[in-house]
Amino acid sequence: MKPDKLLMELEEIVNELGYHVRYERGSFRSDSCVIEGDRLIVLNKRHPVEMQVGVLANLLEDKELENIYLKPVVRRELESFWNRKNKFEQGDLDFGEEQE
Q: How far is residue 43 from each of residues 23, 31, 100, measured CA to CA in Å?
């Protein structure tokens, strides 16, 4: 799935979870917050689409998604992202190099 299409799909999912997504410019890292009771995700317009997808995927990793329909391709993309992230955090990355 192309990153911009995946971004649109993930936006729909976070909207179903009660978040509002905003795109802003500036020198900040994208993240989520709560302002006056409104759940907000601010994505930096200047960051690549893949980074914006990563922000939304990180947020969704800790959410209950059982009651939300996810297209199979979107579920696969999310699971792939989460697996890569977990391997990275554990220092268990395989870059295809043979170890001696």
A: 5, 7, 43
Helices marked H in 17-71 — which ranges? 49-61
> Three-state SS for 23?
strand
| Cα distance between residue 73 and residue 45, in whole Å | 25
Model pTM? 0.83
Task: Please provide the distance, in angstroms rounded to a whole number, between the alpha carbons at the two ends of the chain.
Answer: 36
Domain ranges of the chain: 3-83
**39-96: per-residue pLDDT in tens?**
999 999 999 999 999 999 999 999 999 899 999 999 999 999 999 988 888 887 665 5
Closest C-alpha among 45, 68, 69 to residue 55: 45
